[in-house]
Specification:
With 79 residues, the chain is mostly helical. It is built from three helices and two strands.
Length: 79
Amino acid sequence: MATTGRKRMATDKVKDAEQACEDLRDALRAAGVTLPSLGLDAASCAGSVPLALIELGRCNAATARALAAALRPDQGAAR
């Protein structure tokens, strides 16, 4: 594969991760949850073959409980 093709694939992978991160942020916001450190993991985006991982980060106990509640299947019925 040509270098240009690898660079394009790497760029596409990072862009996809950025979009996934925004989608997750929007879904969490709709559920009333904010993860303050949500973002791309810069180290995983480096190099010629990036992993493009999403860093969920740290949160306090109240946010962890809100996230757990939002993920429970019965949460939708309680709203």
